[in-house]
Specification:
Blueprint (H helix, E strand, L loop, with lengths): L4 H6 L1 H16 L1 E2 L9 H7 L10 E2 L2 E2 L5 H18 L3 E3 L5 H12 L5 E5 L15 H5 L1 E5 L10 H11 L3 E4 L10 H11 L2 E5 L4 H5 L12 E5 L10 E5 L4 H12 L5 H14 L2 H23 L3 E2 L8 E5 L7 H10 L2 E2 L1 E3 L13 E5 L1 H5 L4 H16 L4 H17 L6
Parallel strand pairs: 1-13, 5-6, 5-7, 7-8, 8-9
Antiparallel strand pairs: 2-3, 4-10, 9-10, 11-12, 12-15, 14-15
Bound molecules: pyridoxal-5'-phosphate (PLP).
């Protein structure tokens, strides 16, 4: 564990919250698909004096003096990211996924332009055109859906909508979609209608970097990703594009969207990319996917319905209505059993967004702890037992204790 001796003595109030969160993370089963645990080295990089620096601009062209070292760090991050994703150009400054997406739209299209994106309640992201998000307010989004019977994106239908609507940009890459994405078909459709192709690989970036899922970077015009999901780095994002778009993307991030980059986070991004380039990371990503397959199979064996019937990546959306619960109830019950999940809509959800029908499960975090098939099978049993005994506080309490015992056998790397 890092030393927190100054924090604890100077500000016991904040430290007490940090301590409680460390305890919670140590003792609870983290099945939220977008979360992960960073390494000690990534955590240390985030806590460096690089946070003290201002460095608006880009390596070699800054609006502040004293950036020799910061340039070095940003260039390391860029070079490693290029290698990981075979990217021609990378901007590592975006502060998080949504701001990165804002910069992408800003770089390629104008307010009011038409964009085609997947509906939020079908697995898309808020920043892919939802009316309550800047994307839906500023741009004229048309939404595609997944097929209800297959739970998958139907490329024929995407093409039909694209031919009819003639969008300026097509967005692919999702938050709650468990299948491989047909990047080349998206690119072909975009080319056919003269649209920019934009991939948002926030969720699967780590699996793509490991070479286990198809990589849109070499074929798409522009790709954004968060760093903190399967890629297991600090909170933040980056944008990758072809060299011919480098200038407009960089200008959209700074000065278009942001001021100074967060240099301590840039350092942590570089460290995380360094980790992802190592052979161990490929083994990790393989295990994430194997664990997700095992978890999905266990749920299917227990009679749960999974959107699209299974998973090709690290996550799955399980329909809870077959067990007489909605996603909100399931989330609350599992929370009492020490298991963290996030409720999720299912395609054409009959229930309202605050009480959707599904729960999204993911394996990136528990795999970082070192859990494998045997643990996954036990976790599936606990989930099912908790849901079937949703009102029985005694059983939920017993499961919570068993969950804690297992978790303590698989410590989080930084605690
Ligand atoms: C998580 C996610 C984002 C947003 O990332 P934030 O860092 O939370 O802003 C964007 N796009 C997709 C597809 C995501 O899953």
């Amino acid at each position: 564990m890092l030393s927190y001796k100054n924090l604890s003595s100077q500000d016991p109030e904040v430290f007490s919250s940090v301590e409680k969160e460390m305890k919670r993370q140590s003792e609870e089963m983290e099945l939220i698909a977008s979360e992960n645990y960073v390494s000690k080295a990534v955590l240390e990089a985030m806590g460096t004096v690089l946070t003290n620096k201002y460095s608006e601009g880009y390596p070699g062209h800054r609006y502040y003096g004293g950036n020799q070292v910061i340039d070095e760090v940003e260039n390391i991050a860029i070079e490693r990211a290029k290698k990981l994703f075979s990217a021609e150009h990378v901007n590592v400054q975006p502060l998080s996924g949504s701001p990165a997406n804002a910069a992408v739209y800003f770089a390629f299209i104008k307010p009011g332009d038409k964009v085609l994106g997947l509906r939020l309640d079908h697995g898309g992201h808020l920043s892919h055109g939802h009316p309550i998000n800047f994307s839906g307010m500023l741009y004229n989004f048309v939404q595609y859906e997944v097929d209800i019977d297959t739970g998958r994106v139907n490329m024929e239908k995407v093409r039909e909508i694209a031919l009819r609507e003639k969008p300026k940009m097509i967005v692919a890459g999702y938050s709650a979609y468990s299948r491989e994405i047909e990047w080349q078909k998206f690119k072909d459709i975009a080319d056919e209608v003269g649209a920019y192709s934009f991939a948002d690989i926030a969720h699967t970036a780590g699996l793509i970097a490991a070479g286990l899922m198809n990589n849109p970077v070499p074929i798409f015009d522009v790709v954004s990703t968060t760093i903190h999901k399967t890629l297991r780095g600090p909170r933040g994002a980056m944008i990758m594009c072809q060299e011919k778009y480098a200038k407009q993307v960089d200008r959209a991030v700074f000065p278009g969207m942001q001021g100074g980059p967060h240099d301590h986070i840039q350092a942590a991004k570089a460290v995380a990319f360094g980790e992802a380039l190592k052979p161990e990371f490929k083994e990790y990503a393989k295990q994430v996917m194997a664990n997700a397959k095992t978890l999905a199979q266990e749920f299917l064996n227990m009679g749960y319905k999974i959107v699209s019937g299974g998973t090709d990546n690290h996550l799955m959306v399980v329909d809870m209505t077959s067990k007489g619960l909605n996603g909100r109830e399931a989330e609350d019950v599992l929370n009492k059993a020490g298991i963290s999940v996030s409720r999720s809509t299912i395609p054409n959800d009959p229930n309202p967004p605050m009480k959707p029908s599904g729960v999204r499960f993911g394996t990136p975090a528990i795999t970082t702890r070192g859990m494998k098939e045997a643990e996954i099978k036990q976790i599936a049993k606990w989930v099912n037992e908790a849901l079937e005994n949703k009102k029985n506080e005694e059983i939920l309490g017993r499961i919570k204790k068993e969950v804690k015992d297992m978790c303590l056998d698989f410590p989080i790397p930084s605690i």
